[in-house]
Design brief:
Length: about 210
């Protein structure tokens, strides 16, 4: 596998989807072969699992079931889409990946970062991203953006502020644990600055 696997992480409302779109355009203009994808989802079966996980009707979902469903959707997406793209030397820009499971299910749900890592390691043959861009936005600012924007509200958006604070704390732990691949960008700056900062990091990675 010789492509480059870059993931984007952040709390709700971090703006990562807009940042990815802009980065995709810059890199394509520079002649790079890019694949943009997302989790949970990115491919038919994984998108079906996404619908189950994020449905506002599934309020009784057990935390372990939630972690396993994210891992199942990741296994399908990884083996069907990411591995072939890496083999074709593409640059992959993936909106969320394993670190979301470690921060949300491992830390915020209290299942344990190591425990959630283990089920995900099985799902993805222990392949971690080459680089992870963490768009750093406080839970308060992020949630305000989500509820003021047009985007669809899902089951996890409706968790308490306490939960989202734990997610943020989880990301801080991961930034410490995975210093060699984690790059933080201040997501509370104007969007043009966030895009420029992200682009600079990606250029050094490439
Ligand atoms: P999105 O809003 O960025 O599309 O992500 C969907 C939601 O799923 C978001 O609340 C984060 C959450 N999530 C997890 O809890 N664990 C995971 O492994 C992933 C990929 C997402």
């Amino acid at each position: 596998m010789s492509g480059v696997f870059i993931t984007f992480e952040g709390p709700e409302g971090s703006g990562k989807t807009s940042v990815i779109k802009a980065i995709e355009e810059f890199l394509r203009a520079d002649g790079y072969d890019i694949l943009v994808t997302r989790e949970p989802g990115g491919i038919r079966i994984a998108e079906q699992i996404r619908d189950i996980i994020l449905s506002k009707e599934n309020t009784e979902m057990d935390g372990r079931a939630e972690a396993l469903l994210f891992a199942a959707s990741r296994a399908q997406h990884f083996h069907q889409k990411i591995v072939p793209a890496l083999a074709e030397d593409k640059i992959i820009l993936c909106d969320r990946f394993i670190d979301s499971s470690l921060a949300y299910q491992g830390h915020a749900r209290g299942l344990g970062i190591d425990e959630v890592y283990d089920i995900n390691a099985f799902a993805i043959d222990q392949k971690l991203p080459d680089a992870t861009i963490f768009i750093d936005v406080s839970p308060e600012v992020g949630l305000k953006r989500v509820f003021n924007n047009q985007r669809k509200i899902d089951r996890l958006d409706l968790e308490t502020l306490e939960f989202h604070k734990k997610v943020y704390e989880g990301y801080q732990l991961l930034a410490e644990k995975y210093q060699e691949r984690f790059y933080a960008v201040n997501g509370e700056n104007p969007i043009e600055t966030v895009i420029e900062d992200t682009l600079q990091i990606i250029k050094t990675v490439l």
